């Protein structure tokens, strides 16, 4: 008998037979891959992925590691025995297409390898001498390679190679998810059963429609059918009507405050019901606004609120309102019907190599993917990003909805050849909708010192000022000198930001006479539904200025002294760029705004002005034969990792591509902060944890700590270390001086040394 898994402390009769594990994995992988026509490939990957476990060396390792070594000394089997190379070699022996399976099998534990270049490359693995698997059943070893499923490989060799590499990654996703789930079913059956259940798109749509009908009836009862609400209803009607169209690319161009969030969800669910699609994935550019979007969906879905899977790094794992046993498990592989996640999670997973990141990818087949604020994708990675989206639509039955508050910036055009073609607009006349929803005027103020700016803010009872850096937000807040003012930035942990936003909303709901002066970074700019009469915005990209305008007169309720509607004021100013430098992407976008502003200052947010801006910011960034749209980490091209060998299009560098594709340029370091009693308790728990820690306890700790973490760049980390306010335990930094976390500003660099409690007298 050959085994796949042992059970600690149990006799061999309770171990899992290898053939059963292979067949269970194969059936799951077949089921997953069948959604894009590759069921036979998924099945074969499952049957061959652990062929190496038929070696005597691996079986000896199992018995030794389980404590019953059968006469084999533990020293002889120290370390794990390679059991993944055998199946990879078997697949590769069947010809060039066998390499597709070979990558998946070779990497099903360590991750998709590069074709060549390092000791763990696929080429090295295929040339490696391994233990005999002569005990493997002949009927398994003799299985033929299936014919390639109906992939549409169009374009030049570069694109054809990418198509095959993407297919490899999707098949890899099916295999590793199936392997995880099959193993869990045997080793942790109780955990496995918690994955069962979940509502369909149709059931969620029915509940959403009831909520939307209730909202409309409530507005009619209040007699508050405002022009803004009428425009929102028109947007919803258009989304429902266009949902019947065939799957593909769609755009929803609606100004901020026009009801995009629920209308886009209505489109997605209607579209999924009409075309038997499986799930909706709502991707958002900023972690800071995911929670609000997920909460909007939960409120709309009522008794189906548990169906919303919130997937991001700041999630509180113990919040019963957003987490259940099933949702925690579903987050591992996107096995849910409605998922709210970040662009970083979605897009970096599309180029990842690690099994844990890739498990979810096959769930994107036959799904609706909504990209909120699609124009925020960084220009330097547009080519690989848009190519991956096109693959999902072309070969995996997905629909992609591009949501923007301005206009789609990533559609194909003569001067933007990498753009997405054949995008169908949901709003037939977006320019007219923009005019109808205009509720602000935009003024250009020019250069302002912090003293000048603070003086202007003091003259307003309710005003929001948005700047481009944490440092500037803190400095301006202190210059303002208002004890009742509020500050919001990423220097504050997620729990702290949430409390400030709730206080901000409370004051605004209390009426126009209640003071509410707020200084914020761009964390407030998208998805945080607040409504100020006046908004000041430091120079930035026109899309960011449009987002700022969406926080001004959002409901169109401002009136002049005679009771007539009046617009809110959006004031754009220049700050001291030398004193307050910002990240290159924001600085570059602000430069493009300044180029456009003189010609369009009379209507800075008009479609013509936005088009002129995107022409500079996106469409002219290709340069050097389009290389400007494909500059990954350390200036490496992502697409070149899939550049074809003329003799074999399946010579891909998966690990190199994963390293190159990073949406966030600069690495950041998480610092746990002592905000509130919960943050202080987490730090005490970390200090008390044994070394080495229990892995499960450490994972639970990390999940709980996410809401009490501030991410800092390397230079900021160095400053905090030089100030002596940080300690490190179990490779985790935490703040050991409470004065370095200001109750209004968050993490600051003014404190020196540790709290007294850390010194032994």
From TrEMBL:
Residues 198-225 form a coiled coil. It comes from the Bacteria. This is CRISPR-associated helicase Cas3. It holds the Pfam family DEAD. Residues 11-181 form the HD Cas3-type domain. SUPFAM superfamilies: HD-domain/PDEase-like (SSF109604), P-loop containing nucleoside triphosphate hydrolases (SSF52540). GO terms for biological process: defense response to virus. The keyword GTP-binding does not apply. Gene3D superfamilies: 1.10.3210.30, P-loop containing nucleotide triphosphate hydrolases (3.40.50.300). Keywords: Antiviral defense, ATP-binding, Coiled coil, Helicase, Hydrolase, Metal-binding, Nuclease, Nucleotide-binding. Residues 241-408 form the Helicase ATP-binding domain. One of its GO terms (molecular function) is ATP binding. The keyword Coiled coil applies. In the central section; belongs to the CRISPR-associated helicase Cas3 family. In the N-terminal section; belongs to the CRISPR-associated nuclease Cas3-HD family. InterPro entries: Cas3-like_dom, CRISPR-assoc_Cas3_HD, CRISPR-assoc_Cas3_HD_sf, DEAD/DEAH_box_helicase_dom, Helicase_ATP-bd, Helicase_Cas3_CRISPR-ass_core, P-loop_NTPase.
